[in-house]
Design goal:
Layout (H helix, E strand, L loop, with lengths): L3 E3 L2 E3 L31 E4 L2 E4 L3 E6 L8 E5 L2 E3 L5 E4 L2 E4 L11 H9 L11 E7 L2 E5 L4 E5 L1
Antiparallel strand pairs: 1-2, 3-4, 5-9, 5-12, 6-7, 6-10, 8-9, 10-11
């Protein structure tokens, strides 16, 4: 009777462990919260099973009068059409989750005022520079609309 190596240690041909076997390896377990990195990044392994990640888009309504020549800045960084965003009609579509912080509550405002804690929430701003009637115009802090698809 020959022993074969199995994934969980040494065992016999029918799966039994031979008596007096020096190997006492146990199965290795992977962390269940780790995301899969192979085939699809859309799969997320959790303790309860597999979840599909929902891709999110952020849409920004362009101001009236924006022609075909304009510049877009996200948090002060220039963005390129086709790489960072695309234009659909009178909207800009970003393939990323952008968010604005919103209003501060009383306790958060008080902690900022007293210097106890800072604010570390995501606060993205989209600015558009364009020309209207031969003059340069800047629309800053455009409202963001998140869309799940």
């Amino acid at each position: 009777m020959s022993a074969i190596l199995a994934a969980c240690g040494e065992s016999g041909p029918r799966g039994e462990r031979p008596a007096g076997s020096p190997a006492s390896a146990t199965c290795a377990r992977t962390s269940p919260s780790r995301a899969t990195t192979t085939r699809a990044k859309a799969l997320l392994l959790t303790r309860d099973g597999i979840l599909w990640r929902v891709s999110e888009q952020t849409r920004v309504q362009l101001p009236a009068g924006v022609g075909s020549h304009f510049q877009v800045f996200l948090n002060g960084v220039p963005q390129q059409e086709g790489r960072d965003f695309r234009r659909l009609g009178n909207e800009l579509v970003f393939e990323a989750r952008l968010a604005q912080e919103g209003r501060l509550g009383f306790w958060r405002w008080l902690s900022l005022f007293l210097g106890v804690a800072g604010t570390y929430r995501q606060n993205d701003t989209v600015d558009v520079v364009y020309e209207v009637g031969g003059r340069r115009a800047v629309a800053t802090g455009l409202p963001l609309e998140r869309v799940e698809r």
